[in-house]
Specification:
Two copies of one chain form a homodimer. Chain A has 192 residues and is an all-alpha fold. Chain A contains eleven helices and no strands. Chain A binds a DNA duplex (30 and 30 nucleotides) through helix 3.
Amino acid sequence: MSTTPKSKGKQAALVRATISLVNNSGFHAAPMAKIAALAGVSAGTIYRYFESKQDLINRVYLEVKAAFSASAFRDYVETDSVEEDFKQIWHNIADFKLRQVEEALFLSQCDNTPMIDEASRQEGLRHLRPLLDLWERGQARGIIRPVSPYLLYAYTIYPIAFLLNMQERGHHDITPDQVEAAYQMAWNSITI
Amino acid sequence: MSTTPKSKGKQAALVRATISLVNNSGFHAAPMAKIAALAGVSAGTIYRYFESKQDLINRVYLEVKAAFSASAFRDYVETDSVEEDFKQIWHNIADFKLRQVEEALFLSQCDNTPMIDEASRQEGLRHLRPLLDLWERGQARGIIRPVSPYLLYAYTIYPIAFLLNMQERGHHDITPDQVEAAYQMAWNSITI
DNA sequence: CATTGTAAAATGAACGTTCATTCATTTTAT
DNA sequence: ATAAAATGAATGAACGTTCATTTTACAATG
């Protein structure tokens, strides 16, 4: 045990503060001083853990992306059915986006701006291999459309980010029914 | 005719410069001085046309969104077939995104960050009415899934932005074949 | 157990830079 | 000659980053 009530690592607090501030104000309006204040540390302390603001953003991105990928394949065991396997992964991803809203919004923002180094972006993509493998298996069996994985991703995973954005802006509430409908739409779009 | 070779209005030049700079560096790294330089005017001149940087961004957003909506319904005439009508609009939108790449990338960035006022966002959405009407018609006839228009948008229009982003980052080339496949995937996802 | 020595961690004022914005002046158009 | 348009140096605020100083953590010592 340590001294302060909720001391759990300043680095983690900084990561959380960064996500929250970038979500609510955007990268351009998330100054280091505010991030520090929200994390409950002083401005200078950030530089014990991160080299620069760019480094901070990149590392937060990688950390969140890693958590996302880990969620995607939680309890994933290949069965014989491509559809079963896809359903498993898709719902894992949907669960992540609906439960870790802050993290998911942060990723959606990063993926659509030049905020992140191309190198970090590549690195963040690496962990999605099992999903690509599954798609190839489905294509080999003639179940899934013989198109680029980018198209498959665009029509199955990417739409969830849109729904989340709309929900966050108060236009739309995502009910369990709609999650199920969304899954069916995803599956229908990529199958032959 | 005016004096300079390519003088066509400084306001238009400023809009173009803003789009280009925000695309390549993000809002946070698009200072007014650079925008002015790229537009070939002096920094102070911006303030003859726009009240502030926020106003500049909002108005560029609205202008691009208006051009987008106009494209979406170019030559659109309702037929008796929901599928025909949808195909028309979808391809109009895809054409816009593939031909006006800069404008489309700018919109994708705006739609995923807190860069734009919620008011301007609402305003930009207004012109999409005919598409929503078409969807309602399709739902009334039992052709289109009875789900929120947000879901329909997420699975038909939003994915195009992802493909464009990937193409722009050099991961992927969008061939005419893939556009056709993308259309089929969109249609399959929203029909019953 | 209390005291002390020491290195790591944290601080926040200060620094230099960059930014959005203004405005006295100049240029352009009529 | 006059008004509108454009300029770009000046301004003050805000930013990312640094660093001299203070605080904390804790092992060694008596």
